[in-house]
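For the sake of transparency, this paper describes our internal protein records without simplification. The remainder of this section carries one protein's record, kept here as part of the documentation:
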Amino acid sequence: MGVQSKHFVSAPSLVTDSLQGLCVLNPNLSLDVTNKVVHVANQNRSRVALLCGGGSGHEPSHSGFVGEGILTAAVCGSVFASPNSSQVRRAIDLIDNDKGTIIVVKNYTGDVLNFGLAKEQYSATHPDKAGSVKFIVVGDDVAVGRTQGHIVGRRGLAGVCLVYKIAGALATLGGSLDEVYEVAQYVSSRLGTIGVGLEHCHVPGTSVQDNHLRVDEIEIGLGIHNESGNSRISPIPPLNKLIPDLLQLITSTTDPERSFLPFGNDGKDEVVLLVNNLGGLSELELGAIVNETKRALDNQRINVRRVLAGTFMTSLNMPGFSLTLLLLPCPNDRNAPSVDLLLTLLDNPTDAPGWRWSSKTEPARTPRIPEGLTVSTPLANSRVGKLRASNVASFNTSVERSCRALIAAEPEITKMDSIAGDGDCGLTLKDGANGVLKALEEGKVTGEDVIGSMIAVSKVVEEAMGGTSGALYSIFFSALAQGLAGTSTIATSDDWRSALNSALDRLYTYTRARPPSRTLVDPLAAFIETFPSGLEVAVRAAKEAAEKTRDLEAKAGRSAYVEGGRLKAERVPDPGAWGVRVVIDALFAGSK
């Protein structure tokens, strides 16, 4: 079956043009064109604000849900690409309010890192408001089993739209920051979604891919960014066979690879059903899918309290659909919000253009059944106190030596990455090192102001490096700045020890990589964990951890996508881990 690859618009301005069209449709919205941030024009700043976003191509998610009763703002990246943290920081500033802001993102590496980086940088430069910005990652996919996804976790799919709606309604009704956050977290923990497609989608302006599904074949568990699913079925089964199998992936409590939700399967379970059009399905077929899904749930004796259907989280023009179940609280769930509260919030009115109509009532049982979700804001450190290095000259020399060592190591790291990754790690690290050197020459990085230097490095590596590595480094240095804040006027070894530990803990908030994982986390964690034993011991531990990545199975990072046999045969260390090794080794040499 061929992908529908013809489009009326394939221009690079497609995303911005679409967002401007959304604001034409709803004059109550405003658009920061430069940063692609859609936000409520006349925001009530006495309420908690909800911020979300991600790559474009999933419309109406996320911008279509901005409006009274759901989201306060959405940040849009290019098609299937996360917005950068500068865009997100601009959005945080635009919706600044008296009660606080909750950031909700789908569990994809780029979204988690860039939105998380923005939060950390905002907290580093606004310490008085650090506690007023909360972060929620939603992963509702059940296609990827526990073994395969134990590092990266469950992907974020259409279920996040229910988090948006319920949390947004509670914020609109005056809920506190903690109340909205707790309800959103609860809803996020009770979601399961599975998708199925007749074919993949086509990204405007790109060539047509060759790996199409056959005309008599469907794919189960495919992602919303054209990721392949976990199985293909041929011939295409009838709905009354397909739907029960899909629901079983969500409701089963005996599948050791799944069983993500605590269904009782005893006739007492209550759910909200969301049937989502992935973009290219006809309304005619969608109606039939809604009907068959309700019938299948009735047959499983699962009580459907609400049904929503339509385009909520698409994958451009993908001909497919996804099923989401929100498992409502049981009577004995003492710490859970009440069923009545959740349904009231779901039913609460909204003027967001993308939210589909629903009956706001419990559906009837289906017949024939047996009885029985402008410009970048510059980083500033005017609110952050200065902290001086114990030896300013040594600090500056160490930074310079580390940067020059990383630049010199570029060919070696590039060679490693050509085998273990996509070949750009060496150049990425070199760009970051050159950026820090420039900041050092300009006095933005100096031992006279250690906290300001950490913030400056965070900003430089984010912009110069970009991607996953840039976000990871930037989050770490932003968190390091936070850990050093409020200490003495001169940085001591104890100050560094405490700040390093807190920065590593904060980094773990945004990545599931834990040593040994064949990632840059391995030497970084080894250095921090042994730092109390002395700098020389810590540097040696970091170097050993980087060396050990030669023989580790890739569990996260770029190497997780490379054929494992070749990595073992070549015994190539992880390029990112080697980069950390080079930096730490040079820092030690510069301090002697």
User: Anything to note?
Assistant: The first strand starts at residue 29 and ends at 32. The chain is about 40% helix and 10% strand. The first helix runs from residue 14 to 25. The two ends are 65 Å apart (CA to CA).
